[in-house]
Design brief:
Layout: E1 5-10, E2 23-28, H1 31-44, E3 48-51, H2 58-65, E4 69-74, H3 79-89, E5 96-100, H4 105-114, E6 118-121, H5 129-173, H6 178-191, H7 196-215
Parallel strand pairs: 2-3, 2-4, 5-6
Antiparallel strand pairs: 1-4, 1-5
């Protein structure tokens, strides 16, 4: 039987467990295809397979079941499912592997933009799902690591700019030197058990409010 398109979404929790410990949410409008996929999943070691309820949206099913893996089996690539993927994983990013039986470069790009980790064009038979699932998890974990490192770098840069602005304010309005301004911010943070960046933000916010009152 021809293998139709399928999606696999693995949650962050799934990135920390083996394939044999995955809970699978299977979405398929054709029972026969669903049974074939279930057989492949069972051979891959999936411990639990659950179904999308009639009329249920993917985000609702994900919230209800909290699956490690979601497979959405379609007759052909459907962009509406990309919107469902975005909504379902917006607050809880998940690894995504996609199986399609039609080579569509434009859809592939849209799928990757939507968060697909692994995109595979298959032929007439379902490939071994275990290595594909492992690859999707590995790619997702690497992507998340890079994303978190970028977020930390951006946060660090914002804090450095914030500290520089706060020190400039102290140097200008309180006639401090740069080392004195730095020590003042650190001392305030220690005395109040707060982060230096928080002290800097509060200082600038209070200064802005004071300036606004003067100009009112």
């Amino acid at each position: 039987m021809r293998c139709d398109a399928a999606w696999l979404l693995l949650s962050r929790q799934a990135a920390r467990v083996a394939v044999s410990e995955l809970k699978v949410l299977l979405v398929d409008t054709e029972p026969e295809r669903a049974r074939i996929l279930e057989a492949h999943l069972a051979s891959a070691g999936a411990t639990v397979t659950v179904r999308l309820r009639p009329g249920e949206q993917l985000p609702e099913a994900v919230a209800r079941e909290a699956p490690d893996v979601i497979i959405v089996d379609m007759a052909r690539p459907d962009r509406d499912w990309l919107d469902d993927i975005r909504r379902a994983t917006h607050r809880d990013p998940r690894p995504v592997a996609m199986f399609v039986d039609v080579d569509d470069p434009a859809f592939m790009e849209a799928a990757i933009e939507a968060g697909v980790s692994s995109y595979t064009v298959v032929g007439t038979a379902m490939p071994d799902v275990k290595p594909v699932m492992r690859a999707a998890v590995a790619i997702f974990r690497r992507y998340r690591q890079v994303e978190l490192e970028l977020q930390r770098a951006e946060s660090s840069l914002r804090e450095r700019l914030l500290l520089d602005r706060a020190k400039s304010f102290l140097m200008k309005h309180r006639r401090m030197t740069e080392p004195e301004a730095h020590r003042w911010l650190r001392r305030q943070a220690m005395e109040r058990s707060r982060r230096v960046a928080d002290i800097a933000a509060e200082l600038l916010r209070d200064a802005g409010e004071e300036e606004a009152r003067k100009n009112a």
